[in-house]
Amino acid sequence: MASYKVVAASFLLCCLVQTCYGGVLFSSLERTIDVTASPKEGQVLSAGVDKISVTWALNNTLPSGIDSTYKTIKVKLCYAPVSQRDRPWRKMENNLSRDKTCQQKIVSKPYDASNKTSQSFEWIIGRDIPTATYFVRAYAYDQNDMEVGYGQTTNDKKSTNLFEINGVTGKHTSLDISSVCFSAFSVVSLFVFFYIEKRKGKAASSVEQKVIT
Amino acid sequence: MEVEHPAAAAESNNGNQSQEQKFSVPVDSENKATEFRLLSISKPHMRAFHLSWISFFSCFVSSFAAPPLLPIIRDNLNLTATDIGNAGVASVSGAVFARVAMGTACDLVGPRLASASLILLTAPAVYFTSVINSATSYLLVRFFTGFSLATFVSTQFWMSSMFSPPVVGRANGFSGGWGNLGGGATQLIMPLVFSLIRDIGAAQFTAWRIAFFVPAFFQMLTAFSILIFGQDMPDGNFQRLKKAGEKPKDEFSKVLFHGVSNYRGWILALTYGYCFGVELTIDNIIAEYFYDRFNLKLHTAGIIAASFGLANLFSRPGGGIVSDAVSKRFGMRGRLWALWLCQTFAGVLCIILGLVGSLSVSVVVMIIFSVFVQAACGMTFGIVPFVSRRSLGVISGMTGGGGNVGAVVTQLIFFKGSRFSKERGITLMGVMIIICTLPICLIYFPQWGGMFFGPSSEKVTEEDYYLGEWNSKEQEKGSHHASLKFADNSVSERGRRLNASTRPADESTPTHV
């Protein structure tokens, strides 16, 4: 009897520990949401200019009641594996509290289980979105803000239906011109100083010559 | 008979002039200050100190301005971790040869012109950081900006020219330490400037570009200040002294030869690679280490990273002060022992840093480690001024360059790619510190001794050692007079115990004019 109690206690502890770390594992989530996004496969969009339309709805082939805990849907822009390679700050981790795959939020909308119609949103790509290859994923959250389901525009291997965004360069002609002007000033002023030093040196040595002779 | 040495002739003619120069601090026979007054800006000694540390600080700020803004830059330029690592190595490798070249330049044209030229010629690299658009251009601007770290050599040379042996350790320690502070300060300054500019209304990817104008402009201003307010030596500037014959023109090849043929310079270059080189490596990797291993926010990791560099405020000067204090009692032997003990202990702490797994213990160990490794840097430059007088610049340059070589080698062996985890790399780096500090045992000055042996039984004097760098022809011309004065002033490195017994009774204390 005592051993059962120990097992039960440690099981409870593990569950609590899991909630402590907020560690919902991605592998434990079911793909329950159908998500589509307007960019076609391989399309290149420009940040700050182009728009992305996302549409999402619960997959109607699933048994009913699966969405009973869903309270919010957050749609996110996620990095494709090619943009995660050799970039540990975008690394995928199974523990969603440490996962860095989806860093840009597109939209967050409350979910009504009784309303089965699909929802959509049009999003202007922000000017701070970096150049990379992306897909779109939607997470369903329960009332404790824990992930309970997801859906994405690509397949499980994340190899299909990826699109690219070209970020803004942030460069400006005025910055380019200022750089050149200040740099030139820096170098030229050095030679001006040299010239002044040489002239002072000549004057000093001619004075010394007069003193010696 | 009219054949007088040109130096002596000019001296007697201008003797009245230079003797009438009133200094507000006490000076020795070379007019070097024998006291170090931190809060004064008196001309020329303390003014030189403040100009040199501020300009060196600005070079450090510029060289390490990119790392704290990397989260923005890497997205803007689509950088990979390999690109970032390569640029980090490039940022410290440029200075390897620049430091040696700077040493020679100081010997030939003086620290004022040498440092101001380098600063003004590298400022364009910092300005051009705002127009880069690829991984290659990012690497190039960090490489060329890194050249400015060679101002370290001119700083140490300038301090060694302005301050007398009993205080040269602390002068070098304060100027080097407060300059290195820039590496820590920049981790706080750049994010602040960036967020200010972004809040005014600029887009993120434009704001960081504008932010780089701040360190670039500051760097330029410090160079102008050096040219306008600075002075090479207590007696005046190199050019004027050379033209007036007071500072004889020296031959580049001879200066270089006497520098590179002195084995002590090479040993110090190696050991400096494992205190300063380690410091540079840590500057480049520590924020990422805390971010990844302990899952901190980038902002928090940056503050911890900054505290490593900020310890330079007191730890490096502390090393210089301890070196000077130990030398008063035990002479040069004391300086050597202090350096070996301090740096070896830093190595032990580095091993521990890689092994601890808790965040708070890790931060504490890192801070204690930073104090000891930076103090070791300060102590190294308490020894460098005594290795050579004729080729002081070359020795300073070799040691300084060795520091950067250490940073390059360490980053390539332990922190490139994924062969070692960062914590393993840090522990192995600690082992390497201990091994590469052992050669200090081999440094031996015949007039003062080494770690394990006393001064030579042949009663070699300081004059013998320093005049050994000049051959008889040069001595006939009188080129060696500065070395003679320095030899005289450096008898303080015998330590107190031997001072009374070995010095002739009629010689007065080093502060005679």
Average of the residue pLDDT scores of chain B: 85
**What structural class do helix, strand and pairing data of chain B support?**
mainly alpha
The count of helical stretches of chain B stands at: 23
Q: Total number of β-strand segments of chain A? A: 9
Helix and strand element order of chain A: HEEEEHEEEEEH
Task: Give the biggest sheet of chain A.
Answer: 6 strands, mixed
What would you call the shape of chain A? elongated
**Regions with little confidence, pLDDT below 50 for 5+ residues of chain B:** 1-20, 499-513
The N- to C-terminal Cα distance of chain B equals 27 Å
Strand content of chain B: under 5%
Order of helices and strands of chain B: HHHHHHHHHHHHHHHHHHHEEHHHH
Average pLDDT score of chain A: 85
CATH topology of the domain at 26-166 in chain A: Immunoglobulin-like
CATH architecture of the domain at 26-166 in chain A: Sandwich
Helix content of chain B: over 70%
Can you describe this structure?
The complex is a heterodimer of chains A (213) and B (513). Chain A has 213 residues and is of the alpha+beta class. Helices cover 30% and strands 28% of the residues of chain A. Chain A is built from 3 helices and 9 strands; from the N terminus they run H-E-E-E-E-H-E-E-E-E-E-H. In chain A, strands 2, 4, 5, 7, 8 and 9 form a 6-stranded mixed β-sheet that branches. Chain A has a 3-stranded antiparallel β-sheet with strand order 1-3-6, with no helix packed on it. The termini of chain A are far apart. Chain B has helices at 6-20, 45-63, 70-76, 81-109, 111-128, 135-146, 151-162, 165-200, 204-211, 213-229, 238-243, 252-260, 263-273, 276-294, 298-310, 315-355, 359-383, 392-414, 422-437, 462-467, 472-477, 481-489, 496-502, and strands at 444-445, 449-450. In chain B, a hairpin with a 3-residue loop joins strand 1 and strand 2. The longest helix of chain B has 41 residues, at 315-355. Chain B starts with 5 loop residues before the first helix and ends in an 11-residue tail after the last helix. Classes of the chains: A alpha+beta (213), B mainly alpha (513). Chains A and B meet through helix 3 of A and helix 1, helix 3, helix 5, helix 9 and helix 10 of B.
